[in-house]
Amino acid sequence: MLGRFNLTPPPIDDSLSQMVESHRMKTGQDYPAILMFGLWGTVDCSPEVRLYAGYRYLEGAPEDGPVWLEVARVHLEAGEPERALAIVDELERLESPGLYPSLFSEDPEAERALIFAESGKLEAALELFDALRSRYDDSPVFAYLLGTILHEKGDFPAAAAAYEEALEKLEDYRREAEEEGLTEELNVDFSEARRFIDIAHRAAKKDAAFTGERPRDLSGFREE
Questions:
Q1: Any idea which of 65-79, 118-132, 172-186 has the lowest mean pLDDT?
Q2: Burial of 79 (0-12, 13-18, 19+ CB in 10 A)
Q3: What are the two backbone dihedrals, phi and then psi, of residue 17, each rounded to the nearest 5 degrees?
Q4: Which of 102, 117, 46, 39 is nearest to 75 (CA)?
């Protein structure tokens, strides 16, 4: 166990430990930086290296929710969704999710939905997104991620509608930020965000047109 977390770190490989610790001595790179970026000045950003650094850091800071979530994401990248979900379950049980505010404002259920989506469990992800929809009615991020899941599922008209909703919400977000004088504080590149979403939107519309499916309102994405 690490602190209050009922989780067991993976076993430490001696050669991996020696390599990472030698690198830290030479460069001064700390564990969180290795977890995020791999080893500075090398091409080694493997999940094994990053997980080693993450768990070594958590030995001394087991309440650091954002680091736990980054560790969960690396487990997912390594093809270990069960470990990722176990971490999210513990964060929710202990009521200390620490999610990045720019994403879902500390909501482990949203993180679980993302893990389901990224591990190919699209129906499970959609069920959670459906349940979470009322919480994130104003979030362009939520609408974009919903569109991504629907697009992956092959529901192109609903995906296009979700991306269109994301564009509308992003514009609302930009306008409100300008009215409240928060644009610089938020540090969001709205034009780049719009371009990013617009690319996905056009791709979904193209796929829908190719299949001959008619566009429909997003409210139908959970049709019975």
A1: 172-186
A2: exposed
A3: -60, -45
A4: 46
